[in-house]
Specification:
8-stranded mixed β-sheet; 249 residues; globular; Rossmann fold; alpha/beta; 8 strands; binds S-adenosylmethionine
């Protein structure tokens, strides 16, 4: 198996593919004044197996287009949606977030948890704005510095992983410069990293290694995740995911 195939196998049966929780999705939704007023057209970009898609479908009058590059995740979401009787509210779409087949001003809400970093925050908010109706909302979570200064190890790690990492004030300024009025911001609490993401992940390590004959590639993936967990636990006061809510001007 290639590294990509292994990564998909590792994450595919997880409840979530990144930090977050039902409470965070609902908190972000609470900033959007359109909710409850009409049937909303929502796109959930980089949806993974759809933890947040399901929460959105259960808590809004809406139709959701759930987009991911990998069909394995979309199949998991379709199974879950069917099991919950939500199949009429969710359509899955295999597409890349930098080349979405969406029309101009098609959506009321663009949602993306833990995924906009793939296209890059600034490129994403610029490109996706076209798909939003005037007065529509963008809701994205993005890795964010919680302090103005931080220890060298974590500064260097994130600068090499994702040079666009920044403080919330700088991300909010980017939203303003690109035609959004900021309507909300909060950062994910520790339990949204540990309880819903890293703890269930740690429980999958042994079975994953066994499934792949303890291969070097599989061990590299597990070691990489363990190092990420170590860094999070050591430096959690310095970074988290920020959740940003912007209204298209
Ligand atoms: C960190 S995960 C977040 C998944 C989900 N939103 C969650 O929070 O559980 C990022 C997701 O983006 C998807 N992805 C990666 N590259 C993509 C691309 N170019 N276009 C669309 N989705 C992509 C991955 O398959 C993965 O499901």
């Amino acid at each position: 198996m290639t590294e990509l195939e292994l990564l998909i196998d590792f994450h595919m049966n997880a409840q979530r593919q990144g930090p977050g929780s039902t409470a965070d999705t609902l908190r972000a939704l609470s900033f959007i004044s359109l909710v409850g007023k009409k049937t909303l057209k929502i796109a959930d970009i980089g949806c993974g197996s759809g933890a947040q898609t399901i929460v959105l479908a259960q808590n809004t009058k809406s139709h959701i287009t759930a987009v991911d590059l990998f069909p394995e995740f979309l199949d998991r979401l379709s199974d879950k949606a069917e099991g919950l009787g939500l199949q009429d509210k969710i359509t899955t779409l295999e597409a890349s977030m930098d080349d979405l087949p969406f029309g101009k001003e098609e959506f009321d809400i663009l949602w993306s948890e833990g995924a906009i970093y793939i296209i890059g925050f600034e490129a994403g908010i610029k490109k996706w704005r076209d798909y939003l109706k005037p007065g529509g909302y963008l809701a994205v979570s993005e890795i964010t510095w919680l302090t103005n200064k931080r220890p060298k190890e974590i500064e260097e790690h994130w600068k090499s992983e994702y040079p666009e990492i920044d403080t919330a004030s700088n991300k909010i300024r980017l939203l303003e410069e690109n035609g959004y009025s900021p309507v909300g911001y909060f950062f994910l609490p520790e339990k949204s990293w540990i309880d819903t993401y890293y703890a269930p992940m740690e429980e999958r390590f042994a079975a994953f290694l066994e499934r792949h004959g303890n291969s070097e590639r599989a061990r590299d993936i597990v070691d990489g995740e363990k190092d990420e967990i170590r860094k999070y636990k050591k430096y959690k006061d310095y970074f988290s995911y920020g959740f940003y809510l912007g209204k298209k001007q």
